[in-house]
Amino acid sequence: xxxxxxxxxxxxxxxxxxxxxxxxxxxxxxxxxxxxxxxxxxxxxxxxxxxxxxxxxxxxxxxxxxxxxxxxxxxxxxxxxxxxxxxxxxxxxxxxxxxxxxxxxxxxxxxxxxxxxxxxxxxxxxxxxxxxxxxxxxxxxxxxxxxxxxxxxxxxxxxxxxxxxxxxxxxxxxxxxxxx
Length: 180
Hints:
This protein is α+β, with helices and mostly antiparallel strands. It is built from 7 helices and 4 strands; from the N terminus they run ααβαβααβαβα. It has a 4-stranded antiparallel β-sheet. The longest helix is centred in the middle third of the chain and has 19 residues, at about 105-120. The radius of gyration is 17 Å and the shape is globular. The two termini are about 30 Å apart.
């Protein structure tokens, strides 16, 4: 893979809010995407994450935890959801986080999430990263304990036919990129 191919992948990847309800995502493909995402780097190699994949009726039930106040209605149409829960950091990462006043756990989850959505895109799937959620409803739907934190859920599926790739709207590099 060269830089032009990666650029094409990045320009094609976007948040999808119109999933093809008639196409299921094969478990093997979800597993492959998740296994690739699990190769993401993390502080002190602590890998402080847990992934919970749901499909079918379980995905529809889980989507209710993403739809408070009328938000994310499309999530019910996603054939798969991947809930990213906080796992345990290793001792070195915990000490480093406190000593350096840096939230390595959530940084690591962000890195994992980026790897996951890019792997999904490379596999021909579309995704949407969802942070608006009711953790209580998610924990209930996923049968998780009340102490489990779920900072993000990724909606996964194939886009509806005709779902267009939108031009990227990003700040000008002069506003965000500096060489010193």
